[in-house]
Amino acid sequence: MTGSGTVPAVPRPAYRRLSVEERRAQLLAAALDLFAHRAPEDVSLDDVAHAAQVSRPLVYRYFPGGKQQLYEAALRSAADILEGCFTEPETGPLTQRLSRALDRYLAFVDQHDAGFAALLQGGSVVETTRTTAIVDEVRRTAADRILHHLDAPEPAPRLRMAVRTWITAVEAASLMWLDADKQPPLDELRDWLVDHFVALLTVTAATDEQTARVTRAALRTETAEGPVAELVRRLLPVLGDASHLL
Questions:
Q1: What is the 3-state secondary structure (H, E, C) of 40-90?
Q2: CA 55 centroid distance within chain
Q3: What is the mean pLDDT of the chain?
Q4: Cα(168)–Cα(173) distance, integer angstroms
Q5: Helix 186-205 and helix 227-240, axial crossing angle in degrees, nearest 10
Q6: Where are the domains of the chain?
Q7: DSSP character for 215?
């Protein structure tokens, strides 16, 4: 207490007005979190305003196109994150790079379960050609980055088809994983998807010279303790049962 017997006032923190970019990022973060756990049609602008602790008119000020514009902006933000999942240094075994990329991708699926399902399954009332184009862009970007790691910037149809088929399988497996109450554990799902990629690439290599070339180059980077070696060890007993076909 002071000499006069009064308690000195505690200074209140100064209010800081957010910049336009900061406010927009705040609204997008709130919207993305809502869209992550509820179908787009179940999220209102009032919900976004409440989550961001702002007024509804403020949301409209930044997104005059209303919910559709906000959803597309949130989707673009999510797409940027997903595309970033496949950005990897070009060092080390290919399967290690894929594993790290899948860890990030599947973590996003885990954290944005309902929104991810609504995004890929379609049928939303806010789905448009623009939202579909954003999703397709993620798939193309993921394929291009994987092909870059395979040192195949100009892939022939079979190699591109193999990579795009695998990306489709990753999406489908992610949706089924959500429907199965997130089982098996993420690390097991990731390892299975890496095995799937190796198998698909190897099968395609049997009938396509370009795929065979990039597959041989990729296999040379693998180690005796890595996932490819483990996959071969698991397959040998199975393939041994087919020895009569040789």
A1: HHHCCHHHHHHHHCCCHHHHHHHCCCHHHHHHHHHHHHHHHHHHHHCCCCC
A2: 31
A3: 86
A4: 9
A5: 70
A6: 79-238
A7: H
Tell me which CATH code domain 79-238 carries. Answer: 1.10.357.10
Q: How far apart are CA 196 and CA 29, in angstroms?
A: 34
Question: Other C-beta atoms within 10 Å of 60: how many?
Answer: 15
Do the Cβ atoms of 95 and 227 come closer than 8 Å? Answer: yes
Measure the CA–CA gap between 161 and 56, rounded to whole angstroms: 46
How high is the pLDDT of residue 72?
A: 86
Give the Cα separation of 23 and 224 in Å (integer). 51
CA–CA distance from 76 to each of 28, 133, 215 (Å)? 10, 10, 33
How far apart are the C-alpha atoms of 175 and 171, rounded to whole Å? 6
The 10s digit of each residue's pLDDT in 202-244 is: 999 999 999 999 999 999 999 999 999 999 899 888 887 777 7
Cα–Cα separations (whole angstroms), residue 30 to 49, 77, 106: 8, 12, 21
181 φ/ψ sector (left φ>0, alpha ψ -120 to 50, else beta): left
Query: Computed from CA positions of residues 237, 241, 245, 246, in that sequence, does the dihedral angle turn out positive or negative?
Result: positive
String of DSSP letters for 11-49 = PPPPP-PPPHHHHHHHHHHHHHHHHHHS-GGG--HHHHH
Distance (Å, whole) CA 137 – CA 114? 21
Q: Minimal CA–CA distance to 201: which of 215, 217, 221?
A: 215
pLDDT digits (tens, 9 = 90+) for 53-90: 999 999 999 999 988 888 888 888 888 888 899 999 98
Asked if pLDDT for residue 8 goes beyond 70, the answer is no
